[in-house]
């Protein structure tokens, strides 16, 4: 199925690790989404993609602003873009904090790409690739998240 690139959702990927950034970008594009990658939260915040992004994938720990800091900045600006956090250092306290603040997922590196696919699909319709209205966004509960990680 071919999609009009201007209608495809924009997934922004923020990670200081160029290998994770590229692998995530490849996966996102293979799903038919448009993507933009950033080496830092600051780079993303200064980009024009901030208003176009329909889902944000971000590392938790990065030099400068962390992914958690990025979430706080976006919320303070009234931006409720769905966020998926990825981390090499799982921390239950951080997971609980970002999920309570509205994140839709928290994945440990290395993560199963199927988990990321399912989270992205939970945000977007697959028929027309249009973003879902905010009221339809799936909220992963801590219990469901733990189950998802154990698959």
Highlighted features:
alpha/beta, Rossmann fold, 6 helices, globular
Question: What's the helix and strand layout?
Answer:
Layout lengths: L9 E5 L3 H13 L3 E5 L2 H5 L7 E7 L7 H10 L6 E5 L4 H9 L4 E4 L4 H11 L18 H9 L1
Parallel strand pairs: 1-2, 1-3, 3-4, 4-5
Q: Write down the secondary-structure element order.
A: EHEHEHEHEHH
**Into how many domains do the coordinates divide?**
1
Strand content: 15-25%
The gyration radius over C-alpha positions equals: 14 Å
Instruction: Tell me the CATH topology.
Output: Rossmann fold
- The assigned structural class equals alpha/beta
User: Can you tell me the CATH superfamily?
Assistant: Response regulator
Sheet with the most strands: spatial strand order: 2-1-3-4-5
Report how far apart the termini are.
29 Å
Description:
- The protein is of the alpha/beta class and 151 residues long.
- It has one domain (10-150): 3-Layer(aba) Sandwich (Rossmann fold).
- The protein has helices at 18-30, 41-45, 67-76, 92-100, 113-123, 142-150; strands spanning 10-14, 34-38, 53-59, 83-87, 105-108.
- A five-stranded parallel beta sheet has the order 2-1-3-4-5, with helices on both faces.
- It starts with 9 loop residues before the first strand and ends with a helix.
């Amino acid at each position: 199925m071919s999609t009009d690139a201007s209608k495809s959702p924009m997934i922004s990927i923020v990670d200081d690790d160029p290998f994770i950034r590229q692998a995530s970008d490849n996966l996102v594009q293979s799903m038919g989404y448009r993507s933009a990658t950033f080496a830092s939260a600051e780079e993303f915040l200064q980009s024009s993609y901030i208003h176009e992004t329909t889902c944000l994938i971000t590392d938790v720990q990065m030099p400068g602003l962390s992914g958690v800091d990025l979430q706080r900045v976006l919320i303070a600006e009234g931006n409720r873009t769905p966020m998926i956090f990825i981390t090499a250092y799982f921390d239950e306290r951080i997971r609980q904090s970002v999920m309570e603040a509205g994140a839709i997922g928290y994945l440990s590196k290395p993560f199963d790409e199927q988990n990321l696919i399912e989270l992205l699909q939970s945000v977007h319709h697959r028929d027309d690739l249009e973003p879902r209205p905010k009221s339809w966004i799936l909220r992963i509960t801590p219990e469901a998240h733990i189950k998802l990680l154990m698959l």
